Amino acid sequence: MRVALFATCVNDALYPSTAIATVKLLERLGVQVDFPAAQTCCGQPQYNTGYRRQTEPLVRRMGRAFEGYDHVVTPSGSCAAMVRDHYPRIARRGSDPRLTAVSESLVPRMYELTEFLVDVLGVTDVGAYFPYKVTYHPSCHGLRMLGLGDRPTRLLRAVKGLELIELPGADECCGFGGTFAVKNPDVSVAMGEDKVRNAASTGAGVLCGADNSCLMHIGGILHRQDSPQRALHLAEILACTEEEPLT
Amino acid sequence: MSGTFLGMPAFPEAARTSVHNPTLRANIRHATHTIRTKRAAAVAELDDWAELREAGKQIKEHTLRHLDRYLVQLEEAVTAAGGTVHWAADADEANRIVTELVRATGESEVVKVKSMATQEIGLNEALEAAGIAAYETDLAELIVQLGEDRPSHILVPAIHRNRGEIRDIFRREMGRWGRAAPDGLSDEPAQLAEAARLHLREKFLRAKVAVSGANFMVAETGTLVVVESEGNGRMCLTLPETLISVAGIEKVVPTWRDLEVFLQTLPRSSTAERMNPYTSMWTGTTPGDGPRNFHLVLLDNGRTDTLADEVGRQALRCIRCSACLNVCPVYERAGGHAYGSVYPGPIGAILSPQLRGTQSEIDASLPYASSLCGACYDVCPVAIDIPEVLVHLREQVAEQPGHRLERAAMGAAAKAFDHPSVLAAGQRLASLTRRLHPSKLPGPGRAWSESRDLPAFPAESFRTWFKRQERRKREEGTR
Questions:
Q1: Start and end of every LUD domain (chain B) (predicted)?
Q2: A28-50 pLDDT, tens digit each
Q3: Going by C-beta distance under 8 Å and a sequence separation of 6 or more, which residues neighbour residue A151?
Q4: Which chain A residues contact residue B423 at CB under 8 A?
Q5: Structural domain boundaries of chain A?
Q6: Is A32 within 8 Å of chain B by CB?
Q7: Domain B11-304 architecture
Q8: Which residues contact A71 (CB under 8 A, 6 or more apart)?
Q9: Fewer Cβ atoms within 10 Å of its own Cβ: the N or the C terminal residue of chain A?
Q10: What is the pLDDT of residue B1?
Q11: DSSP annotation of A107
Q12: DSSP string, B90-114
């Protein structure tokens, strides 16, 4: 099987390790991964801040970049939800028929990583090895917009050596929220600090998530507090094996 | 007394104060978490919750689409049943109508049933200016009124107060307005409730005029419905000679049968009860039973404008249950006052800027007072997609003056993202200079780095890595 990886702009620029892990994981499962270089950003920062029209060229670009692939896989629930939930709206409210064409074509082909693994490949045990205590934060867009359900935790539970500890208040937002993080920094940080406090109470060494933008916010607070806990993307855990552990 | 929030600072500034107030944070956290857990249990009891939610949405959508017809039908039915209907385009007109109606009775005080519409128009202040005292009779509204405070929650207006604070307010203020608090009043809930009961009983028995709102108005019969928990509403609606009800035009439902849906979804969503303790319904006047005069003031106050907005109009489906407030992580930390409106929380963030416009500082900031986590949409019993409306209103605000820099920045980012080679060059430059990057950002970036560190910039982007891999694979393949 051959799929296109939608790395997302955040992973491309700031968290290449997550995108690299996604490639290694998928290749290990026998999937051939392409990275169409025309891809950039899905337009979520613009759209969610109120700049819908500035999003339109990026929607068209996404359409061009991923033309011809049956499956587009992305290690971000938020970016997958942007395409699936908001592209149809952008198409409806815009006047360009190309937006409708992109939306209709791309929406059914866009998969968040755990959906692709569980629903398309039909695997929950990906042959990973990660001998640490882990707690999982389900980011809001994956949880509520995509309805990822227990896919991420099923994958984590199947990892050899991994002890999954439930995160109290898991379904509460971490406070990132895109530009919300800088437009309402006090509330954003207060939410993040509560999330970090809950995560610390689990005693886990790793706070795992499936959206690096949220993990950038949570990790930024952990780092500022000199916490021993580390924020890590799910793909990087699933990519680890006994032969190739986390570096 | 319950102020009209004029000249409020923007949400982020107002929220800053509450975020750093530990008592307030603890009060609201405790209350919202308790009620949200109970609501979840009350909703989970019903197998057909999803269908009820969809039915509620459909009924409201249908009514709003034919609002002109149903309002006229309502007016005819109320009039035929002996009531008088008044139409108020805005808050001033509604206040004027109510003031004149009270004056015509010759009375100088009224008792009030908890009502969002009269809070919205600042009726108590308008009556006070006309020399008419308005007494709130809902326990929480009484606490707010006696404390010269403002409501901070739709259903639990004094949610920001704890028992000790309430005891102090009762001890200090009750005597100034009527029967004083009993000596040695403690902060036991039963004692506090008894003090309020005694204080209010005096007012119920004396009042000749009552003012209420309405949860629902049935067009086919002209029946008004008030749903409450304490029985104070029942007193106000039955004891006085004159009853004046002020209700937003969106409160109408076509038939009695439609109430079947909302009388299930409203109590479970708001107080997490299967059924609320008191449901009062009245149709015009009945000789020898209840008020002899009944006036209904139908309030627009921005609702018609809201109805004209295709995306925003869904906010008019709201039945004021407060479920969205109780699950909102932003409300929980910012508190209700930061929203600068009688409608706080997620619903307030989409309702206030539509009813009042987005011109003032506070109203322009409300659409951004959300992380778009979507918890509000999940619990809404009439399926208002609050995040969708928030983003839609942000679009409206972003068009206004004052967003020049942000618009330029968003435009520039979109342009760079539309040119992958420019983006790649920028990434390479950032990687090359990464040791020079400051750990704390200047300017607007300070909002990030004040309390959060930035991730270390990687040595190369994923794009570069992938290209290198491809090249290696090709070379290995040709060897």
A1: 73-285
A2: 999 999 999 999 999 999 999 99
A3: A114, A115, A117, A118, A119
A4: 9, 40
A5: 2-120, 133-239
A6: no
A7: 3-Layer(aba) Sandwich (3.40)
A8: A1, A3, A4, A109, A111, A116, A120
A9: C
A10: 29
A11: G
A12: SHHHHHHHHHHHHHHHT-SEEEE--
With residue B280 as reference, give the H or E element that holds it. Answer: strand B278-283
Percent of residues, chain A, with pLDDT higher than 70: 100
The Cα–Cα gap between A202 and A204 comes to 5
User: In this model, does residue A104 exceed pLDDT 70?
Assistant: yes
pLDDT at A103 over 90: yes
Q: How far is CA B390 from CA A92, B60, B246, B372, B373, in A?
A: 17, 20, 28, 8, 11
Q: What is the pLDDT of residue B401?
A: 82
Q: Which residues of chain B have pLDDT under 70?
A: 1-7, 478-479
How far apart are the CA of A126 and the nearest CA of chain B, in angstroms? 22
Flag whether pLDDT at A124 surpasses 90: yes
Q: How many CA atoms within 13 Å lie on the side-chain side of A195?
A: 32
Q: State the pLDDT at residue B4.
A: 43
Whether A225 contacts chain B with CB within 8 A:
no
Is the pLDDT assigned to residue A220 strictly greater than 90? yes
* Assigned fold of A2-120: Rossmann fold (3.40.50)
- A14 vs B457: CB contact, 8 Å cut-off? yes
Out of B388, B414, B444, the one facing A46 most closely (by C-beta) is: B414
| Identical fold, A2-120 and A133-239 | yes
Segment A120-132 shows an average pLDDT of 98
Test B391 with A48 for CB contact under 8 angstroms.
yes
Residue of B418, B427, B467 with shortest CB distance to A13: B427
**pLDDT tens per residue, range B225-269:** 999 999 999 999 999 999 999 999 999 999 999 999 999 999 999
Alpha helices for B45-162 (secondary structure H): 49-65, 67-80, 91-105, 116-120, 123-129, 139-146
- Cα(B44)–Cα(B48) distance, rounded to whole angstroms? 9
Topology (CATH) of A133-239: Rossmann fold (3.40.50)
Looking at chain B, the domain(s) classified CATH 3.40.50.10420 span 11-304
In the numeric block, the tokens 């067009």 are attached to B219
- What is the distance, to the nearest Å, from the Cα of residue B319 to the centroid of all Cα atoms in its chain? 10
Alpha-carbon distance of B4 to B357, in angstroms, equals 15
pLDDT at B5: 55
**A184 in contact with B, Cβ within 8 Å:** yes
pLDDT of residue B430: 82
Average pLDDT (A13-28) is 97
| Residue in A14, A46, A219 nearest the CB of B410 | A46
Distance (Å) from the alpha carbon of B231 to chain A's nearest alpha carbon = 35
